Structure formats: structure tokens, C-alpha cells
């Protein structure tokens, strides 16, 4: 049996005291690749933020990578996020550091200390996204697609149990989006669980997978041909 990575039971997601999704029930198993789709404002990002504890879970029951979202204490949030890989639409790379130092910064911030171990880990995650030769490049020297690959590498640094990708292709052209998707699919095929919020229906058609839709304050599974 596949291990359950995420379980939500009768959850209501709030954004500034407004319920944006109600009666959410979801189980995500180890190795799943699941899309979350829906119009802007339908609750996709609020849903993601609740999963990495940027928004509190106050209604319903939810566990993610063995953490209870409802009883999660402030001091435990960094430990939860260490077990999650989070990929944002806008990359969030530190502009004053090269690729290597961006990744090293994250490792140091999450408790790594040995220089050699950090170097091995940085090379390994850059290999996985095809960016090992870009270690000394500054973010401004990289294309959008290259920056997102680095962001994905950063998300892999602590060998997360679950990757939350919030519109990872939102700022990319169609061809670059496909390249980034290829990276994500390969990572998934190697065993990583991925939950990806997107509005890019072309990617859904090209890389079909289980799809959940946010609409009218509900989250429900859709058959892809009716997306």
C-alpha cells in the first residue's frame, strides 16, 4: 500500500476570514502527481498556502508529511517546510548570490554544516534539473526557464516527501513551460510526490494526470477531457 502523504477531511480554507473552499476532502499517496486547476481567485493559492502553513487550518482535519496542520505550533513550521519542496511562480532566487550560493544558503538555513556534504548535495540536485554547469551564474544571467529549474533544484535540497508547485510555469513561454514540466515529470517518475497548481491547460493535455478543480468554493476531481 502506498503511504498517505496528505490527508484532508472536511476542511474549509480561509483567506482573510473569507471561506474560499469548503468541505475539502483529499488523500494524496506517495508517488502521486496531481494538478490543481481553477480560475484566478478560485482558491488554488490559498489551498497551497494552507498546506505549507502560511495560512492556518482552523476548520476540518488535515495532516501533511506526518504533521497535524490544525495543531501545528509556530516553532514547528520550519520543520514541516523542511519536508516539503515549494516551487513558486516567481522563482524567489536571491539576486545578489550565484546559483551555488543560493542553494548553499538554503542548506545552511536548514541545519547543514559540513561544506563537503553541502557541495555534494548541491551538485546532485543541479544534476537532476540539468543545471550543474550553471553554478557560478547569477540569477540575472539566467533565462526564466533556467531560473525555475534552479528553483526546482532548491526545492529538492532536503529530499522532500512532497513538492508543492504553485503555478511553476506561470511566468514562462509555452516551450519553456514544457521543458520545466519534463523536469517535474522526471522527478515524479523517480518517486517524488507532486501537487501542482496551474492554469496552463495545454500542459494538462500534454501530460495528463489526476486533476482537481477549484470552483464555486469546492474542490472536485475532473475527467480531463471535460476540463
From TrEMBL:
Q: Does the keyword Nucleus apply?
A: no
Q: Which Pfam families match?
A: ABC_tran
SMART domains, per the entry: AAA
Record-linked PROSITE patterns: ABC_TRANSPORTER_1, ABC_TRANSPORTER_2
Q: Where are the transmembrane segments?
A: none
Query: Boundaries of each ABC transporter domain copy?
Result: 6-227
InterPro entries per UniProt: AAA+_ATPase, ABC_transporter-like_ATP-bd, ABC_transporter-like_CS, ABC_transpr_LolD-like, P-loop_NTPase
Report the function annotation for this chain: Part of the ABC transporter FtsEX involved in cellular division. Important for assembly or stability of the septal ring.
Q: Which family does it belong to?
A: Belongs to the ABC transporter superfamily.
Protein's UniProt name: Cell division ATP-binding protein FtsE
- The species this protein belongs to is Flavobacterium supellecticarium
